[in-house]
Each structure stands twice: as C-alpha cells, then as structure tokens.
Amino acid sequence: MAVYTVAEITVNDPEAYAEYQAKVPATIAQYGGRYLVRGGKVTPGEGGWSPTRIVILEFPDAESLQKWATSPEYAPVAEIRHRAADSKSFMVEGV
Question: What is the pTM assigned to this prediction?
C-alpha cells in the first residue's frame, strides 16, 4: 500500500536549503519515492494552519519510506536539511 510523508518546512538558510534540494531527489528515487508536492503556493484553509512550505512524497510502502529515511545515502543530505530548516512531518497510508 502506498504511503505518503507530509512535511511542513520553515527554511532558515536558503543557500544551504538549495544544496539540500539539489541533492535529495536522487536519494528519494533510489528508494522508489517521488514528489507529489515540492513547495508551491500554499493557501491556508481551516483551523489557522498557515505553513509557508509543504512537501509531500509518495513511496510504494512504509518499508521503502523507512529504508530511505534511514539510508546511508540520505543521512548526509538530511544533515544539510537539519542545519538549513525546521520541519514537522508525518506518514500516512493511502487508500
């Protein structure tokens, strides 16, 4: 079953985040993932949530997502993101 990871990103260092953006797609693809949303205009809806940047990734299953998130390929790229941005995320199963 497909799973999705949804992240709210607050970029603190645009230059470092641009490096992350350049390096991360290959790691995602390597584990069968793909972008559904990568930035773009956010229009707030109900509940007072007003994020500035949203990223949604799709993976074939939870195991693939977990393998990517803990992979040796992604680890150094994730460190760039940790320095460049604050993020909140969750995983949700598809239907």
Answer: 0.92
